[in-house]
Design goal:
Layout: H1 14-18, H2 24-31, H3 39-42, E1 51-52, H4 66-75, H5 78-86, E2 88-91, H6 97-109, H7 127-133, H8 136-146, E3 150-156, E4 181-186, E5 197-199, E6 208-209, H9 211-215, H10 226-229, H11 238-257, E7 262-264, E8 271-275, E9 280-282, E10 294-301, E11 309-312, E12 318-321
Helix pairs in contact: 2-11, 6-7
Bound molecules: 2-oxoglutaric acid and fe (ii) ion.
Length: 331
């Protein structure tokens, strides 16, 4: 829902009018030095201006002829078929509560409150995170859904909504990359007023938001990939900047095409696995300051080169170890 609904508000430009929220990230992006086009011009862009047919697919999701579709679907498990059609799978009561208790104990020992670990690669140092993020049943499920081993790339560990606007995570990857995936782990019953994870089912089969097309809105020094991987601490990353373009475009698309927005309101131990091209967001909390105890993991195909080195987790699965942990973008 547009935040402007029902409230007479004055917006300096239509980007603000359609944005999911005037989050600090959004305001920094639109008031920063990043764009080479005016905000008014950017606000006229449509989804087709920022998205293209992806070059590569996992075998389950790509479009086929009707006959091939029918034959393929007949071979799929219930989870595979659902993932193929909807771009996500929910598994209730999936993570054993003793693993969650062990992880929450670690957080308590470190006095984290609702804060994250300060780095997206804290799973390297803390096996308690890996025991959840690389739970053997999940590693197995990834093989079913993506037809390959997926390695853990980052974890988001703050117990609050990210309040990120609409985006697909794969916008950070090269056009020829295979789809990545995300997993949302509920560490407690989640209060729907804390800003839940929201998504548009089936949007993983839309054209994919493309970083080269988004680059045309940006001054050369703020373009992907260098502005993402080379962002200095405290600077907005490329992903953060272009979300200010993507989010209002998707909001408008939802309104114009009357698309259904779904929320994940889990209980403790539930997980939601989403395809890297599914459009989703972290909703704005209805009640400020409410905890949202969760881990979010991002996973990429293990065999793709150039990410760094994947280590074998002693208890199953793989996780990325970057050349220098200190290079990691702060989460
Ligand atoms: O806050 C959320 O639930 C969404 C986070 C998100 O978009 C992500 O981790 O990729
Ligand atoms: Fe995301």
């Amino acid at each position: 829902m547009s935040i402007s609904k029902g409230i007479a508000m004055f917006f300096k430009n239509p980007l603000e009018k359609y944005a999911s929220s005037l989050s600090s990230n959004f305001l920094r992006a639109i008031n920063g030095p990043y764009f080479c086009k005016s905000l008014r011009e950017i606000s006229k862009a449509r989804y087709e201006d920022i998205a293209t047919q992806p070059e590569n697919e996992v075998y389950l999701v790509g479009k086929r002829s009707d006959r091939e579709d029918e034959m393929l679907n007949a071979t799929l498990t219930e989870d595979q078929l659902f993932y193929r059609q909807n771009g996500y799978v929910i598994k209730r009561n999936f993570i054993p509560h003793d693993l969650i208790a062990e992880y929450l104990e670690l957080r308590k020992k470190l006095n984290l409150g609702d804060a994250g670990f300060g780095t997206p690669v804290s799973y390297v140092e803390h096996p308690e995170i890996r025991r959840i993020a690389l739970f053997p049943e999940l590693v197995k499920l990834f093989r079913d859904l993506h037809g390959m081993d997926m390695g853990l790339l980052v974890t988001h560990t703050r117990h609050r909504s990210t309040e990120r606007g609409w985006h697909p995570d794969g916008y950070l990857d090269a056009a020829e990359a295979l789809p990545r995936a995300g997993v949302w782990f509920a560490l407690d019953d989640i209060d729907p007023r804390s800003g839940p994870f929201e998504y548009i089912a089936g949007s993983h089969r839309w054209k994919m938001v493309n970083n080269q097309m988004l680059n045309t809105f940006l001054k050369p020094e703020y373009r992907w990939p260098q502005a993402h991987f080379g962002a200095q601490k405290g600077e907005l990353t490329w992903g953060g900047i272009v979300e200010a373009i993507i989010d209002p475009i998707v909001m408008k698309k939802i309104e114009q095409e009357n698309l259904k927005v779904e929320s994940f309101c889990p209980t403790k131990g539930d997980v939601l696995i989403w395809h890297g091209r599914l459009i989703h967001r972290g909703a704005v909390p209805e009640v400020r300051g409410l905890s949202r105890p969760s881990i979010i993991g991002q996973y990429v195909p293990l065999h793709e080169k150039g990410r760094g080195m994947f280590m074998r987790n002693p208890e199953g699965g793989f996780f990325l170890v970057r050349p220098s942990l200190h290079d990691a973008v702060k989460f």
